[in-house]
Design a protein that fits this description.
Elements lengths: L2 E8 L3 H13 L2 E8 L2 H7 L6 E4 L8 H11 L5 E5 L4 H10 L3 E4 L6 H23 L1 H14 L3 E6 L2 E5 L1 H7 L3 H4 L18 H13 L4 E8 L5 E13 L2 E10 L1 H19 L3 E6 L4 E4 L1 H7 L3 H4 L4 H5 L3 H14 L1 E9 L5 E12 L5 E10 L1 H47 L3 H29 L6 E3 L1 H15 L4 E6 L7 E3 L1 H17 L5 E12 L1 H4 L8 E10 L29 H11 L3 E6 L5 E8 L24 E5 L3 H13 L3 E5 L2 H11 L3 E7 L7 H11 L4 E6 L3 H4 L3 H4 L4 E3 L4 H13 L8
Parallel strand pairs: 1-2, 1-3, 3-4, 4-5, 17-19, 23-24, 23-25, 25-26, 26-27
Antiparallel strand pairs: 6-7, 6-10, 8-9, 9-10, 11-12, 11-15, 13-14, 14-15, 16-18, 19-20, 20-22, 21-22
Helix pairs in contact: 5-6, 15-16, 15-21, 16-20, 17-18, 18-20, 22-23
């Protein structure tokens, strides 16, 4: 049952007063209290029936020393306790000399209940002693009764030696009255106290100060008769009885509390070793415990957050926190992923596990939260899912591109033949228009194949400065004048090994996207620099390796990309542009080209504040530069009457291919699939000089056809063709090593050059 007490609190801070009252309630007191912060209010509220006065030391209009002085001037013997956050030892000693009963630092507010209890006990004992003086015999009887009946241990000392003790004092030491009286306190204590001081020296100093009239309050450890240690909180006061000076020591056993504190300290030390963020908050959300893992994760030190509301500190979405908190109060536990923020406003994704803690009566008292940082894990999972999603879409896109290549191949080849035969200027212009449209369609197909299978062009030395200068020229000629271009060229002489056309396409696509994001104009910045990725940095990006990279950063000041679609922008055919204003292949093509160059792409964007795309490409040292040899042909090569077997299931491709070959001096035979090709070759093998076969056909595909033909004649000259890049679609060794390959759609020039090269090459068809 709570003990009712009347309290006057002298403090200018209402919140601090509330904390004091709550501390007393936790100590089983039921306070009736008033708060004052001026001398006038203090004098009005000062009454002899008060049980205790608790005062701050320093206030704007008043101070604790003045309050103590006024109390003494009234002659009221009311316990006076000073609670301060800044009081030094000199002030404490001065306050005790002036008559303060006790003093506490605000960071030890948990001792307030004990201090008030001790103060009231002292006050009560003093009143009893005073009443005893009024009637010697009656007073002595009452004092003795109180002495023996007290719940605390009471000891009387004369000249530093025990001369009396009550039953609780005997119980605390585990010894009889006779075993205690006549001995000094240090005889029952270990060599050193918990604070590290020598017990004999500490006892001598305390006795000396107490005899000088300075009340003493301290912690003391004794050796119990059973070999255990007993912790006590002791207050000592000087008494004069019968002309002699005595010391009365009142000791309260706090062994259980001290052991609990030690256990808590040990547990806290263990929790500090955990890498997870561990926090305990009360039911109002105020932080009670904050481990080292939480300090490391959130950047807030323990002393900064204790007492702060956790929902306002690290949760950017209070409603989400409130819903989860209701669940933990209802179910007793909750687990899930939540968004947090750090001290420097960095976003985190954490896996949270909350548990409701209860007191001995089973009532909720606090919530334990264990938070694990999964920010990088979630980012990696998102990248992986995007890569898997794009891989599946790429398979579909590759199939479509193959069919389109079969459609475009006869168109492009036929146009070139028709232009050779057509003399009418108007007809030639029509053919040229058809050719431009067809090549545009072929370019789109190549973009799809770049995305689907990472088609690689010829790799040559690429100088970043030249690449950026080309882009600068294009932007200057074509972009609106309200877009300001800032170009930052790399200072290092590092170079790239890649397909310059493809890399030009990467930067061009990014610049076009930046232009479209700034319809009202703005700033476009293109910068290049070289960096070195260490192993830790490389693990944050799928496919990245440690080493030196060239970064091409394209930054615009445009509308930015909404967070909801940021992970979709590299998907093929995904676009936010209006119909007929975008194919949705730009960024997917960028990613495919960059990946084919063993690089990766990073994007940073904030709605309304622009976007930055960073393209990371591995670089080579200038000493590795190789000369780019470009071969040009003055005219299309012709055949010398050789017979070429053309194998393709698409009749239009067979017809235009044979027409082209025959126009330029070859003879041809045809087959619609592999089985028919084997039959034709079996009959005409002495006439056939080479075989041009598609790789994707019904009945018998190109790979099986090539293996069967080479089994019949290992020296047979083979040329393969497909809408897919050979090594990216077929994995069997017999066809993956074909030396001569035509990628559909191919032009007449490409067809004739490849056939002529194969006819002039005496080597085998497979690369060994």
């Amino acid at each position: 049952m709570s003990q009712s007490i009347k309290i006057l609190i002298v403090d200018d801070c209402a919140n601090d007063a509330e904390l004091l009252v709550n501390g007393l309630r936790r100590a089983q007191f039921d306070p009736l209290w008033h708060r004052v912060d001026t001398e006038l209010d203090y004098l009005i509220k000062l009454r002899p029936e008060l049980d205790v006065i608790i005062s701050d030391l320093t206030m704007p209009q008043f101070n604790g020393m003045r309050a103590l002085e006024l109390l003494k001037s009234r002659g009221y013997e009311i316990p006076f306790i000073i609670v301060s956050g800044t009081m030094g030892e000199e002030k404490a000693v001065e306050a005790i000399k002036l008559g303060a009963t006790d003093y506490l630092m605000k960071d030890r507010i948990d001792r307030l209940g004990a201090a008030v209890g001790h103060a009231m006990e002292k006050s009560r004992l003093r009143r009893e002693c005073r009443e005893a003086e009024e009637g010697r015999l009656e007073g002595e009887r009452k004092f003795r009764a109180l002495f023996d009946a007290a719940h605390d241990a009471i000891y009387m000392l004369h000249n530093g030696v025990f001369v009396d003790c009550n039953s609780q004092g005997q119980f605390m030491y585990g010894r009889t009255w006779d075993q205690i009286v006549g001995h000094t306190p240090d005889e029952f204590a270990p060599l050193k106290q918990p604070d590290g001081r020598n017990s004999r020296e500490k006892a001598a100093e305390i006795v000396m100060k107490a005899l000088a009239g300075e009340p003493q309050s301290f912690e003391w450890m004794v050796n119990h008769a059973d070999g255990t240690h007993v912790y006590s909180e002791i207050s000592i006061n000087r008494l004069e009885m019968g002309g002699s000076v005595y010391l009365m020591a009142i000791a309260r056993d706090v062994t259980d509390r001290k052991r609990a504190e030690e256990q808590i300290a040990e547990q806290a030390a263990v929790l500090d070793k955990a890498r997870d963020a561990i926090a305990i908050r009360d039911l109002e959300g105020r932080i009670l415990f904050w481990n080292k893992g939480a300090e490391h994760l959130y950047g807030w030190m323990r002393e900064e957050v204790i007492g702060c509301n956790i929902s306002q500190l690290i949760y950017p979405h209070p409603t989400v926190f409130a819903e989860a908190n209701r669940e933990v109060m209802k179910q007793g536990e909750w687990a899930g992923e939540v968004q947090n923020i750090t001290k420097n406003r960095r976003d985190l994704t954490v896996e949270a596990r909350w548990t409701l803690l209860r007191d001995k009566e089973g009532q909720p008292k606090s919530v334990l939260a264990i938070n694990t940082d999964i920010t990088e894990k979630k980012s990696f999972e998102a990248q992986l899912m995007r890569a898997q999603r794009m891989e599946s879409i790429g398979t579909l896109a590759g199939g479509i591109a193959h069919d389109l290549n079969n459609i475009l191949t006869p168109i492009l080849t036929s146009i070139e033949l028709l232009k050779l035969r057509e003399s009418d200027p108007q007809a030639k212009r029509i053919l040229e228009t058809i050719e431009v449209s067809s090549r545009r369609g072929a370019d789109i197909v190549r973009q799809v194949l770049s995305f689907a299978h990472g088609i690689k062009g010829e790799r040559v030395v690429v100088h970043p400065k030249r690449l950026l200068k080309d882009i600068e020229s294009f932007i200057g000629d074509t972009f609106p004048k309200n877009i300001r271009l800032n170009l930052s060229l790399p200072q290092e002489p590092w170079i790239l090994l890649g397909d310059p056309t493809r890399l030009h396409q990467v930067l061009l696509n990014l610049c076009l996207n930046a232009r479209d994001a700034m319809p009202e104009g703005g700033s476009l910045t293109i910068a290049a620099e070289s960096i070195v990725l260490d192993r830790m940095s490389a693990t944050k990006h799928i496919g990245a390796k440690e080493g030196r990279y060239m970064i091409f950063a394209v930054t615009d000041s445009g509308t930015g990309i909404p967070v909801a679609i940021l992970d979709k922008i590299f998907e093929p055919f995904f676009t936010t542009k209006e119909v007929d204003k975008g194919t949705g292949l730009g960024l997917s093509t960028v990613l495919a080209i960059v990946k084919s160059h063993e690089g990766f792409v990073d994007v940073e964007s904030e709605p309304g504040k622009g976007t930055t795309f960073k393209v990371f490409l591995p670089v080579m040292h200038p000493s590795a530069e190789k000369r780019d040899v470009v071969t040009t042909l003055a005219s299309l090569p012709r055949g010398n009457g050789e017979t070429i077997l053309v194998v393709d299931d698409e009749i239009s491709i067979r017809e235009v291919t044979t027409d082209t070959l025959e126009t330029f001096g070859y003879r041809t035979l045809t087959a619609s699939d592999g089985a028919e090709a084997l039959a034709v070759y079996q009959q005409k093998r002495n006439e056939i000089s080479a075989v041009l076969t598609d790789m994707t056909m019904p009945v018998m595909d190109g790979a099986a056809t090539i293996r069967a033909l080479l089994k019949m004649d290992p020296t047979l000259k083979i040329i393969a063709s497909s809408g897919f890049k050979l090594h990216s679609h077929h994995g069997k060794s017999s066809d993956a090593n074909i030396k001569y390959f035509l990628t559909k759609p191919y032009s007449a020039e490409t067809l004739l050059n490849t056939v002529r090269e194969r006819m002039d090459d005496p080597g085998p068809s497979l690369m060994l």
